[in-house]
Amino acid sequence: MPKTRVTIPIFVPHLGCPNTCVFCNQRVSAGRADPPASDEVRRKVQEYLPALGPGVTRVEIAFFGGSFTAISPSAQRALLAPAAHYLAQGKIHGIRVSTRPDCVSPPALDLLAEFGVDTVELGAQSFDDAVLAASCRGHSSDDVRTAFRAVRARGMKCVLQLMTGLPGDTRETAVWSAREAASLRPDGARIY
To answer: How many CB atoms lie within 10 A of CB 181?
Structure first.
C-alpha cells in the first residue's frame, strides 16, 4: 500500500529538557548530540520533497526529541522559520513539535501559533504520579491534563506519548494510564 502521509523528522536531541529522565539518552537514540540548525531543516525538506510518491496527500515537518517549547525562543524561531516558509508555500501541510507537559505555557503556545504549528505531542509517559516520580520526570499527571487542555484551547491537535515498563509501572498502572489518556480524546497516541 503506498504511503499517503509523510513526516519529515528533525531531531533536537535533549534540547530544552530541564532534567534527564531515567529512560532517556536521546543523543544515542537520535544518533547525534548536536542541535540542528535552520539550514538543516531546509536541506532535509529539499531532500524529502522530490522523493514523495504521487499518492502522498499530507506532508508534515516534525521536531522530535528534546522539549521543543523549552528551547530558547530564538532557537525555536530559527527552526520554525523554514518550516513555516514551506507551509506558506503549500509544500508541506503541517508542523508538529514534541515537548514536556510542564513546558507548555501561553507564551510558548503563542510562539508555536505564530509559525503555524498545528500539532503538539506531549510526553506524558504515564498518568501515575508515583511512576512519573520514580522515572524522574519532574511533572505530574495534572501537568499533562493542564497542558493538554491548553493546547486544545489554542485549536491545535494534541498527541499523547506514553511509555510502559517505567520504574514502578505495573500492568494495572499502564492500563490505567492508557484509559486516562483515552478519556482526554487525544488526536493520537504514541506508545513507547
So the answer is: 21
What is the 3-class SS of the chain, one letter each residue?
CCCCEEEEEEECCCCCCCCCCCCCCHHHHCCCCCCCCHHHHHHHHHHHHHHCCCCCCEEEEEEECCCHHHCCHHHHHHHHHHHHHHHHCCCCCEEEEEECHHHCCHHHHHHHHHCCCCEEEEEEECCCHHHHHHCCCCCCHHHHHHHHHHHHHCCCEEEEEECCCCCCCCHHHHHHHHHHHHHCCCCEEEEC
pLDDT value of residue 18? 59
Place of cell 508542523: 95
* Entry pTM: 0.87
Does the pLDDT of residue 29 top 80, yes or no? no
* Mean pLDDT, the chain, whole residue set: 87
Residue type for position 69: T
pLDDT in tens, 125-167: 989 889 888 887 778 889 999 999 999 999 999 999 998 888 8
Residues β-bridged to residue 184? none
